[in-house]
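Practice problem: predict the structure.
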Amino acid sequence: MKLFDDPAKGNCASCHIDRTSRDGLFKPAFTDYQFEALGAPRNRELAANNDADFHDLGLCGPMRKDYQSAPIYCGLFKTPTLRNVATRKAFFHNGVFRSLEQVLHFYVERETDPSRRYAKLPDGETERYDDLPVQYRGNVDVVDAPYDRKISEKPALDDAEIADIIAFLGTLTDGYQPAPATP
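Answer:
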């Protein structure tokens, strides 16, 4: 949980609030109920994505139409709760990741090693935020940790820390029972 909360490490709690309200009435839902553009990679397995012009822009459509006139909302998706997250089989709006390990590696490597997650252009360059049209890529969060790193910098979390956060996320599962201790 310390890594989850640490603003210089996971910084997860900045969007996935894990504190009881000051009056004690509201227990942590592990979401801030806000919207964020994280620049998830394009899921090439989705039939809709065979059309290079198709983009799920979250608040801007295709399902929603109410924010299409406000480009600052394009590419933003609601922050999900992390309750029962360890039981999910697909992550992000397009299901591009299939494990929490993939998600956490994406979070910490998106800016430090984008070539690991995004498609290559014909010239060999990496096309960051390739599931968003170019005009909306500026909406992607590059300010908050762990997205505030630069290429070749050390990611905010190492493999052991990622495993620790995944173990913590497992405790958010309804009916969680820790594995029996081995002698």
